[in-house]
Amino acid sequence: MRDKKENSLLFDREKKKTANFAFDFSEVQMKKIVFGCCLLIFIASCGGNGKKVDPFEKLTEQLDSMNVGSDSVLQDTMVLVEEVIPVTVDESFADFFYNFASDEKFQRSRILFPMPYYEGKEVKRISREAWKFDPLFSRQDAYTILFDKAEEMEMEKDTSLHSVQVEWIYLKEKRVKRYYFERKKDAWFLEAINWEKLAHGEGNEEDFLTFYEHFASDSIFQRERLHYPLLFVTADPEDEFQILETTLDIGQWFAFRPPMMKEKLTNVRYGQTETLTSDTKVVEFKGFGNGFSNVMYFERRHGIWKLMKFEDLSD
To answer: InterPro entries, from UniProt (predicted)?
Structure first.
């Protein structure tokens, strides 16, 4: 693959808008001997054809121009944060999620309370008062997104999505914690959280997540599962608009590899295909708003997984 993929930055477009209004008034100098008469004339003239100036007219027009949903319940949840969160926050899920995971007030305003919290057969409903701020993976060095096909990575930029799930995948415990986000009246909201068992492939072929846990934690096993030559794609250090395609030997791989997440992975389900029978997997490593971007391309051949290509297009 020689075409440079556009590096999608998650969660790096935070803006602030403020409005300042100043009003200048001039004093009317009047002679004391005719003060009463002039005052009466002035009051009368104000009630005539003179045009009144509403100093808040421009502010009202600006607020009216913002596409705020008509649903009063959804409106009330956003009152506390609308002054510090950019109006573009819901243009894409990535923009929304950046603010949701890093701003406590904004997060609380974008949860539909009481929120169902499922764990096995049990279900609790969390109230607004009982909710505790959840930074998700915003405090990690990197997070991961899983795909079956490289072409589906473009779904991250889709602004027409209405349903997205964010996951913590606990590799040792074989469990997954899934957050369900829905878009309502052009605004994203968290509507439920669910704990469930992690699905695993059956049969003689190697399960990808079982393989990845071993690959991430055992350097000897990792060495054995590198395809040779290992393809390497990166930006030209002398020209950031050019892409270099080369290969890495084993020593270079261990020098350039991304921070391997050993005990748990993250995932964002935009609607991409994810099947246990797929013989290709793409693991995208991204920084939370810092421009870090690495991608590992795996293939399952003769029933076992190997790393075929590594890509580093970080800013």
So the answer is: DUF4348 (IPR025590)
